[in-house]
Amino acid sequence: MPGYSCARFGGEGACPEDLHMPQSVEGRAIAALGSQILHQRRIGARGYVGLDFAACLALLEAQGIPEKIASLLLPHWEAGLIEAGARMRDQDGTE
Question: Are 54 and 61 spatial neighbours (Cβ–Cβ below 8 Å)?
């Protein structure tokens, strides 16, 4: 895949997934549950608008993540997803 620098994709650099891996136990747990959290999104007229925090908190609490910790980390996760979605729309030229 062009544009990747890690050895997994034929490059020689550090893998971004490893380089930016969360350091805390709770952060790693939320990252591991990422695909489940991603399905708890709110969709608006222009596409993805954010996460359903109530559903995400319930899901994470069921996995043993304290609600207080999850509520601190989820806004940052959501902001990253919104930013990534905006970048994809810009690259695709879609509104």
Answer: no
First to last CA, the chain: 26
94 burial via Cβ count (<10 Å: 0-12, 13-18, 19+):
exposed
pTM: 0.59
Give per-residue pLDDT as tens, 9-24: 666 666 666 666 677 7
- Residue ranges of alpha helices (H) inside 1-95 are 16-19, 25-32, 34-38, 53-62, 67-92
**DSSP assignment, residue 8?**
G
Separation in Å, CA 64 to CA 26, 33, 58, 68, 73 = 9, 12, 10, 12, 15
